[in-house]
Amino acid sequence: MAPGKTEDPPQSNAAPTDTSVPPNPSLPDGHWTPETVLSTLPTRPTTNSASPLPFFHLLERLKTTKREGWRRFGIHHGESIGDHMYRMSIITLLCPPTLAARLDISKCTRMALVHDMAEALVGDITPVDGVSKGEKSRREAESMDFLCAGLLGRVHAGSGQAEGIRRLWQEYEDGETAESVFVHDVDKMELLLQMMEYERSRQGKLDLGEFAWVAKRIVLPEVQAWASELLGERKEFWGRLGKADGVGTEVESDAGQVESAGLSDERRRQQDEYYGNGHGHAESNGAAETSV
């Protein structure tokens, strides 16, 4: 061992901790509560504490809960919810100047960091999980109420910090402000980046073209330009392999299953029903929700 250097710890082959939460589609609408998950935790967070530590500990679940949509394609140790939100927050810091001049970028970054916070309890619910969009929204709102009132209600009392987190999350959900529209677009852009990176890392053995549809839901021209550039990269990648860029091909996932590329009629129906058809108020502002 060289002087002044420490020996690297032995590497473990154990699978990383995964605290992904089943969406409980079997529960009737209105029956899920934060207690549904809290009752299963090895250590329950202490409520009504003046210390932020119980909240800090619960946030660990965002680091270990996986984004669910990739699992259908055999990606079982993929990105976590925290991974997704971190890159989103960095993307907001690189907002093109023509757009940044019209936005509160600090608010956008903070919004990106909290927009999926409820998933620490709810988990990452996707369009194929059998949970309606309205029920998903209810579960997430109740989870944010628990986090911000039950865990943070007495932390730095009077500072407004907990209320600020709750308002930021709600602003993103409502999708009516310029900042929330940008962050929704960034949410979609981050998904497209991850889609491309998983395909590239598997050298064309996995086609995730099903997720490319979200590019059409991006509203702001500056983010559309990023998406267009990325989809161009993807087309070149598949072209070098002598395959179409997703649509109409079948490839084998790393789980040994053959997955169809593109968006099937049934999957399109599920996603249109889940995300809306683009004519709702939030959707028309680019705030259609994106989840894998």
UniProtKB/TrEMBL annotation:
Residues 77-201 form the HD/PDEase domain. Residues 9-21, 36-51 have a biased composition (Polar residues). One of its GO terms (biological process) is deoxyribonucleoside monophosphate catabolic process. It is an enzyme of class 3 (hydrolase). Its EC number is 3.1.3.89. GO terms for molecular function: 5'-deoxynucleotidase activity; metal ion binding. GO terms for cellular component: cytoplasm. It catalyses: a 2'-deoxyribonucleoside 5'-phosphate + H2O = a 2'-deoxyribonucleoside + phosphate. Its cofactor is Co(2+); Mn(2+); Mg(2+). The keyword Transcription regulation does not apply. It comes from the Eukaryota. Keywords: Cobalt, Hydrolase, Magnesium, Metal-binding. Gene3D superfamilies: Hypothetical protein af1432 (1.10.3210.10). The keyword Transcription does not apply. Residues 1-52, 249-292 are annotated as: Disordered. Catalyzes the dephosphorylation of the nucleoside 5'-monophosphates deoxyadenosine monophosphate (dAMP), deoxycytidine monophosphate (dCMP), deoxyguanosine monophosphate (dGMP) and deoxythymidine monophosphate (dTMP). Belongs to the HDDC2 family. Homodimer. This is 5'-deoxynucleotidase. It comes from Friedmanniomyces endolithicus.
